[in-house]
Amino acid sequence: MQTIIALAPLVSHRLCLAPPPFPRHRLLCRRAPSIRLPSHRSSTTSFRLLSSFAASRDSEMATEDGQDPRIPKIASSIRVIPDFPKPGIMFHDITTLLLDTEAFKDTIDLFVERYKGKGISVVAGVEARGFIFGPPIALAIGAKFVPMRKPKKLPGKVISEEYSLEYGTDKIEMHVGAVEPGERAIIIDDLIATGGTLSAAVRLLERVGVKIVECACVIELPECKGREKLGETPLFILISSA
Ligand SMILES: O=P(O)(O)OC[C@H]1O[C@H](OP(=O)(O)OP(=O)(O)O)[C@H](O)[C@@H]1O
Ligand SMILES: Nc1ncnc2[nH]cnc12
Q1: Cα(198) to centroid(ligand 2), Å
Q2: What pLDDT digit, counting tens, does each position of 46-76 carry?
Q3: What is the predicted ipTM?
Q4: For labelling alongside 44, which of 60, 104, 143, 180 has CA 20 to 30 A away?
Q5: What is its pathway (predicted)?
Q6: Which of the ligands is closest to the CA of residue 92?
Q7: CA 11, 13, 14 angle in degrees (round to 5)?
Q8: CB–CB of 88/102 below 8 Å?
Q9: pLDDT digits over 123-181, tens only?
Q10: Is 166 designated active site?
């Protein structure tokens, strides 16, 4: 069961978005996230963010009250930009987290603490933002990093997996031989929305006999119901943005 711990909102107002005036090519979750942004980071408005730790199915908590003190700081370092890349989309921008050395380190540490010593030999990162969080986690837990790329980027022989977008399809690819059957993997990305990307990554690795221990993201947009698309594969997130 997912555990969500609401932080005291700094502001109460929420944005209500009108339905999109045009079809979307890519389902980016349209919602009113709520995080109050430090004024130097926000060009627009205030939001509220719900934070949770260990929102995986086993609801493991970092501290007795379930709230790791690092989480609120990480949450407040993430910027939410309305209407990017299209009107109505609340874009969760992790580049501001990367500028905050403490928040970035804490983010990596939280994942490392969870996965170190768990017999994981593969950290698979999904292009592009999984390439930011995956490698430092892989190095710290002594696993290899396997990039899961957008089509036609990898030079060697690839195995690919297609996934549906609201309109059309997309694909991710991995080099043949990057992993061996029987290896244990985690899959890292910055954010899960509809779950299309992560579920394709799961299928790709499972096709070559890899055991997916868990998918891990910094942010979940629960209203997009990506968790449902992952089925039985566990999902661990640091922040649930609602
Ligand atoms: O759960 P989903 O609905 O599949 O959405 C989540 C994916 O969307 C974003 O990447 P995007 O596809 O925008 O690519 P980018 O990181 O290359 O910009 C994000 O980094 C995830 O990979
Ligand atoms: N709202 C969002 N913000 C950032 N990345 C996304 N990927 C899908 N939806 C997203």
Answers
A1: 13
A2: 344 554 444 443 334 445 667 799 999 999 9
A3: 0.99
A4: 104
A5: Purine metabolism; AMP biosynthesis via salvage pathway; AMP from adenine: step 1/1
A6: 2
A7: 125
A8: no
A9: 999 999 999 999 999 999 999 999 999 999 999 999 999 998 877 899 999 999 999 99
A10: yes
The ranges assigned to domains in the chain are 118-240
pLDDT band at 26 (very low <50, low <70, confident <90, very high): very low
CB atoms within 10 A of CB 220: 27
Which atom belonging to ligand 2 lies closest to the Cα atom of 221?
A: 1
* 35 Cβ contact partners less than 8 Å away, ≥ 6 residues apart: 46, 47, 48, 49, 75, 76, 78, 80, 241
- Which tokens belong to 136? 């430092």
Residue that is written with structure tokens 């942004």 in the block = 37
126 CB within 6 A, ligand 2: no
Q: CB–CB of 30/89 below 8 Å? A: yes
- Computed from CA positions of residues 164, 191, 20, 231, in that sequence, does the dihedral angle turn out positive or negative? positive
Kindly report the CATH number that applies to the domain delimited by 118-240: 3.40.50.2020
Q: Could you confirm whether 180 is annotated as catalytic? A: no
- What percent of the chain lies above the pLDDT cut of 90? 70
Ligand closest to CA 192: 1
For ligand 2, mutation pick of 17, 28, 96 (most atoms within 8 Å of CB):
28
Of 30, 70, 79, 129, the catalytic one is: 129
